[in-house]
Specification:
Blueprint lengths: L6 E10 L2 E11 L4 E5 L6 H8 L7 E6 L2 E3 L3 H5 L2 E4 L11 H10 L3 H5 L1 H7 L15 H13 L5 E5 L7 H16 L3 E6 L2 H7 L2 E6 L2 E7 H6 L1 E9 L2 H10 L3 E8 L2 E6 L5 H10 L4 E8 L2 H11 L4
Parallel strand pairs: 3-8, 3-9, 6-7, 7-8
Antiparallel strand pairs: 1-2, 1-4, 4-5, 9-10, 11-13, 11-14, 12-13
The structure holds adenosine-5'-triphosphate.
The site of adenosine-5'-triphosphate has 12 residues, from strand 2 and helix 1.
Amino acid sequence: MTNEPAVKTQKLTKTYGDKVAVDSVDLVIPRGVAFGYLGPNGAGKTTLIRMLLGLTPATSGSMWLLGKQLPKERSEALSKVGAIVEEPRFHEYLTGLENLRVAASVRGPDAFARISESLDRVGLSARASDKVGSYSLGMRQRLGIARCLLNDPELLILDEPMNGLDPAGIMEFRHLIRSFVSEGRTVVISSHLLDEIEKTCDAVAIVDRGHIVKQGSIDEMRGRPSGQVTIEVGEPDLALSLLSRLDYVSSVEVVGGGELKFDLRGDATSAKVNAALVGAGISVERLEPAKATLEDEFLAVTSNMGIH
Ligand code: ATP
């Protein structure tokens, strides 16, 4: 395994007429992580995935999968990729097992040898002899994953994989994805569901109207200071009156129990506020800068879209 990223794009762009579906996307997805491509409906997630898989050509920009440049080295790259784009499709009148045999027949003998373990891995062995027409959506999703596993992929790309699954199905899916990561595989998941990405992934890019708004590890994204501060003081009335007069503090409110909340303006730090309070003889028992959550970031994007 090399250190080349699992996915890399530079200024990757796709337009349909006047419409920019993917807008100059610079993406670096390291190996061995679960990566969430998170954005509201229509943000351009599926279009990006379709370009990576060679299902639609890019209008401009460059892309690499597993260190192989696309489209030049596509077949080499895709031999180590398993993907599900939109809903997985199968032959409805064939059984799960027969469907995997059909898929393995175009992939070669190694793929045939992996059929049984792949079914086992996704918990479908007991239903492998039933026709796919009788499968629930969750079972189809799992069969789709089993099909991806036939070529022992280094990279899995899954477009909205948990759509339509019930809570138990989502939890199973999450465990499956984490188990792939623990084997050193990379899993890229597109989703419009924040919770799904936050619980499953190590890193995330938030995408809005084809454009990446934020990109980083889930911890980094959770940990960014938001500018809001909560304090607990011995003299809340005095603190309220002092803070209301400071030009680098806004939106002061008393929360109760000696607690106040306020926002810092510009470059002001909570240490500066602390010094002002202590200087005025107010005892500061607790001072806690709030962190912006991934939810705040995502809500900012989706509210811009007028969804909320
Ligand atoms: P969803 O989850 O709703 O599919 P998405 O983030 O995957 O959303 P895309 O399907 O990639 O978004 O679509 C991005 C934009 O590009 C949308 O505005 C869509 O209408 C447009 N688009 C996608 N495919 C085509 C096409 N073949 N022709 C014209 N416009 C398209």
